[in-house]
Specification:
14 helices
């Protein structure tokens, strides 16, 4: 909001220092910002990364054709009109398709990096087709079909509209919401604690019910060798996880014997949300896991110009690993794959987004092979699919910077809860060796 006003006022660039002094920037996004976006070249590359068009005609676009404009005109000076663009995925894509510049060793801008591309991933999914169409708004703005009174000015105006879209905009970042709730006073957040808690609950509900399913596809036990095929199915309209590359999903898998002893475990985590034995190590995609030192982590790993792993956006030139699970219908030759392609060993995995019927399954199968010889039967198999929005690697990289803002964040992070959200889980009991 502050940047848009500054550009309107003639500024060529907008800095963080300017944002820190602006009440507009403190609010970030407002009703008046999104609802002024024109239906002008939406979906084209020039409108991405905040390239939306807002002009000076003071019109507010909404989903209703018949409205009573006087209250808004009198109180705000804006004219409410119908705009079909507010219900298009391309409308959301203006900000949520984000390309960031990266620099070379001499500090020169060397190109642009596809930091966040959920809209482009959606284009390469079955949900963009007429038969299975679901837009961003369909999932992130719950619909109320009953008629709703959308204004209380003037008091005598009782006309109701249907449908009505709740502006929840729930994603997957429980971690930052919880940090905001815990530090409301220090951060100057005026929203009530109860409202933040509702957003946290909605976020957890979205992750646990609408993001992905986990199940056992097959179990076999032969001559002391246990094989468990675990299947993950993406239920979203974009890659899972999606958004900023600090987000990751992984499998916590364990086999327990009849005496309660864990004979195999992969993907366990610490109280600070670190994966045991796996932090600061580059973990490739796995088709088969047969060692506790291996963990199946679904993530996008950034690489610099030389192909080395980095957590710094200004150095990020490409993805050296991207095995985030694609949405249903995703194809390697589909639209926009130059920005959303699979990277790393997942490309050669015959179970990743593909089966005997072809690609586009939106799923992955990983096989766990465990030596159970000598273990007392029966066995119990436990699995968890875990989601984390803020990978500790990213945060530790950030905390290396010695600035007041980073130090302030670090103090909050020290007391924050970064344990992952359990997206789905399973338990299989009484696995016999007979």
């Amino acid at each position: 909001m502050a940047r848009t006003q500054a550009i309107m006022d003639g500024a060529r660039h907008y800095s963080l220092s300017a944002a820190e002094a602006s009440e507009f920037a403190w609010d970030g996004v407002s009703c008046a910002l999104c609802h002024q976006i024109q239906d002008d070249k939406l979906g084209e590359e020039q409108t991405f990364s905040g390239g939306y068009v807002i002009n000076h005609d003071r019109k507010i676009f909404g989903p209703y054709r018949q409205v009573f404009p006087n209250p808004m005109l009198n109180h705000t000076g804006y004219l409410p009109v119908y705009g079909e663009q507010v219900d298009k995925p391309e409308f959301c894509a203006t900000c949520h398709t984000l390309f960031t510049p990266y620099i070379d060793d001499n500090g020169n801008v060397a190109g642009e990096f596809p930091e966040q591309t959920p809209y482009l991933e959606w284009l390469n999914s079955s949900y963009a087709s007429a038969d299975n169409y679901l837009s961003c708004q369909d999932c992130h703005m719950p619909v109320v079909d009953d008629p709703v009174k959308i204004t209380n000015r003037p008091p005598w105006y009782q006309v109701k509209h249907s449908p009505f879209w709740k502006h929840h905009f729930i994603g997957g970042n429980r971690f930052i919401l919880a940090m905001m709730k815990k530090n409301r006073e220090e951060l100057g957040i005026i929203s009530a604690e109860s409202r933040l808690e509702k957003s946290i609950q909605r976020t957890e509900d979205r992750l646990q019910n609408d993001s992905a399913d986990m199940s056992i596809d097959k179990i076999s036990l032969d001559d002391g060798r246990l094989q468990v095929d675990v299947k993950i199915v993406n239920k979203t309209g974009h890659k899972f996880p999606t958004g900023f590359p600090s987000r990751r999903v992984w499998i916590h898998f364990a086999v327990i014997d009849a005496e309660g002893e864990t004979i195999f475990e992969s993907g366990n985590f610490t109280g600070k949300g670190k994966i045991v034995n796996r932090e600061r190590a580059y973990e490739p995609h796995h088709n088969v896991i047969d060692s506790p030192g291996q963990t199946q982590i679904y993530q996008a790993v950034m690489g610099d110009l030389s192909g080395e792993r980095t957590e710094t956006l200004l150095k990020s030139a490409k993805y050296i690993k991207d095995n985030r699970i694609p949405p249903k219908g995703y194809g390697k030759s589909g639209p926009m794959v130059k920005f959303t392609g699979i990277a790393g060993k997942a490309n050669s995995d015959a179970n990743f987004n593909i089966n005997t019927d072809g690609e586009g399954t939106g799923a992955d199968i990983v096989s766990y092979e465990v030596d159970t010889s000598g273990a007392p039967y029966p066995l119990t198999i436990r699995g968890q699919l875990l989601y984390q929005s803020s990978n500790p690697n990213f945060i530790e990289n950030l905390l290396e910077d010695q600035t007041p803002a980073v130090s302030r964040f670090g103090a909050m992070y020290e007391h924050a809860d970064n344990t992952p959200v359990v997206v789905d889980s399973f338990i299989a009991e009484n696995i016999s060796g007979n």
